[in-house]
Every structure is written in C-alpha cells, then in structure tokens.
What we know:
Layout: E1 25-27, E2 33-37, E3 47-48, E4 55-56, E5 61-64, E6 73-74, E7 79-88, E8 94-102, H1 125-134, H2 147-150, E9 161-166, H3 175-182, H4 184-198, E10 202-208, H5 212-224, E11 229-233, H6 242-250, E12 265-269, H7 270-282, E13 288-294, E14 302-307, H8 312-319, E15 327-330, E16 337-338, E17 352-356, H9 374-378, H10 385-393, H11 397-402, H12 413-417, H13 424-438
Parallel strand pairs: 1-14, 9-10, 9-12, 10-11, 13-17
Antiparallel strand pairs: 2-8, 3-5, 4-7, 5-6, 7-8, 13-14, 15-16, 15-17
Helix pairs in contact: 1-4, 3-5, 4-7, 10-13
Amino acid sequence: MKKIKTFTIGGIHPDKFKLSSDIAIEDAGVPEIVTIPVKQHIGAPAKILVGKGDKVKVGTLVADADGIISADVHSSVSGEVIKVEETETGSGYPEKMITIKVEGDEWEEDIDRTPDIVSEITASAEDIVNIIRKSGIVGMGGAGFPTPVKVTVPQGKNVDYLILNGIECEPYLTADDRLMQECSEQIVIGAKILSKALNAKKTVIAVDENKPNAIKTLKKAVGIHKGVSVQVCATKYPQGAEKQLITAVSGREVPSGGLPIDAGCVVQNVGTAFAIYEAVQKNKPLFERIVTVSGDDVEKAGNFRVRIGTPSSYLIEKAGQKSEIGKIIFGGPMMGIAGVNLNAPITKISSGILILKDESAYKPEVSPCIRCATCVDVCPQGLEPYMIHSLIRNGEYDEAEKIHVLDCIECGCCAYSCPARIPLLDYCKLAKYEIRKKK
C-alpha cells in the first residue's frame, strides 16, 4: 500500500462536517428561468452571440471565448432569450448575463445522452485540446482558469506529473466525493484523455483519506483502465490547494511567483476531468455541475446535479432552511464568499451553498495582535501574516510585496487560527489587490 502523503509546511485541522458524503447525487431539475453569466472563468468575458427573442437548445453556444484566456458559454436549457443585460452576482457586483425562459428540454442533436461508458480514446492530442476549448471547460475546483490553456504545454516544458485533485478539503463540501463514488470510471477515462493531451509521464488521482468509498471505487476503476494510479493523502487543510498538493504527491515545490508547470506538474480537479470525459467522449459541453447544499441550518443536506444559470434560491428552497435569519455562503466556509444576492446563478465554479445559523454567531470580537506567531506556524506558504497585517494597516504595500504576500493562496488558515480574531486573510487579499492594481 502506498504511503499516505501530505505537504510539509503549516496547515490546520478544522472539523469536516461532511454531512452529505453518503447522500447520492440528485438531479435538481430545471427551473423556470436561468441567468447565465458570460464570465464564469478567469480572463475576458465571452462575446455574446444571442439577443432577446432568440431560441436556444440545451448545449447551444451563446457566448464565444474572447481571446486565449476566456471560455465559451453554452445554454443549459432550451427556450427563449428574454434579456441580455447586467445582473448582480452572488457578491452583488453587476456582470453581463443572458436570461433564458425555459420551454421544454430540447438538447442539441449531436450530444450523446446514453448512459454507456465510452472507454476508447480516439481523439488525437490536438483534437482533445480543441474539443475542450469548444466545450467551454474551465477549472471546476474554484479557480475557473480556462482548461485549454492548462492542457497546452509551453515549449521547452515537460509534464512529469498530471495530478487529479480529489481532496475536497473544505468543510461541508462533498460534491467531488460523490462524483468520485458515482462516476469513477468516467473520471479515470477523463484522466487518461488529459494525460494523452499533455503527454504526461505519470497520472495520479489524489484523494483525501477521509473519503474511503471514493478511494475504493477509484481503485477499482484504475484496475480496469490502466495507466492511472490513486494516491491517498492525509486529511489536512489546505491539502487540496494546488501548490500543497504538488508537494504532497511529487515532493516538488512550485517556485515563488512560478506556475505548476515550472515544477513539471499539471493539476486538474476531478470534476474537470469528468467534464472532459463528457466533452471528448459524449460531445457534451459544460453546462451543468454537481453542487453541495449543506450547513448547520439546512433542513436536508444534499448533492445536486444543477444546470448552469439556476438561481441559488432554487437550490436553497430545495434543501430547506430551518430559520428565517441566517447566513448564506457561496463555496466553503474557509474560502467562500458571503451571499448578498440569493438569486445569483450557479456557475461552472460553484462548488456549494452553505446555509448557516444567525450571522452574529460568526463575528467574534477582534483584539490587538499579541505577536504569538500562530499564523506563521499554520501558513502553508511559509508567510508572516501578522507582519503583512501590520504593514497594510500602515499602507506599506511595497514592503508587503517584499515579504511575498503575492504568494498567499488565500486559504484562510491564518484568520482561522488567530487567537485575537484578526481578519488576517482580508488584509492579505487587500494587499494583493492594491499591489496588482498599482502594477
């Protein structure tokens, strides 16, 4: 049996609260109206191809990637476009979105909707990249980086490790866990497709040790589809962060300011691998994903297959909220954002919705820093968050850059562990924003 691995610097062990890990994926159904953002990824918004009154089907291209760092957007429903205008995101910022009134459920004819698993990979490496591009696939672990860019290896670089990220270390979230349990073969075939595109020497699916059922199903799948291995990793947050996972699996470190490819590695989320399988083997664009709805104030936690553009309120109503006053988090409790607009649409990077108890319970009183350096001990990047906090309070952004604040992965370990309850992560985010804006 392979040794259980982990990263070496920092990290914490928050309670997991995996309330829905044993709950099978449920189809959320189709709402009456969807609102599809044309920017569900890092980079430029896609160029809108439809207008009010246009008819679309499930899988119709509605917005075209605008440049290399961009991604196509497809309709998740069939019906009529009723408006194309700026609409509020979950955090309250306006972005261009396409609103479609649902009329039936008619799919584009060339999408293979059969349940049969297609094992043989006939597409060439070049074809795979093109299919990923035209299918609008982005990193589904939260970053939303356009996948075609990540599967195009720069000249002079080699991929020694393709690592599929099945860690899902955020408390409450179980969407990836359920996907690995229920669709392990498709994920492994997706890994082989990625490996072919990248010409990777080794392909590894990394899974947290607290997911025994997923480990079991994946090991069975890699026994059928050779060329991929499963690596069990220790339960520690943020094990699923890209740089930390690379260290755990390969023993290598991504250099400061560098990219995973500089360490000979490429990391993709298991959800992305599944979407790639569906795109290459089933001709299905990315227009739906698995979303966890959970929390300490939810009536029925669950994992849902959701069409992109579905209002968050639709899922919240489906799961149920115990109390009238509470807090909604989009994402996980460590790195997610507080929900301002509860009608905000589900996007390609929506991993979960948390329904939590009264907001006042989550606002501890802040006291002065006591220089205990707990934040330094837990930082997986080896930074000094207390020092960054002090510099930013004095507006010394250049000095913060000198002590590598741009290497912060925004995991929140520092704020979680601070006995003074200082929002250290917020100061790091502010520093990164101001430094990049100045540049």
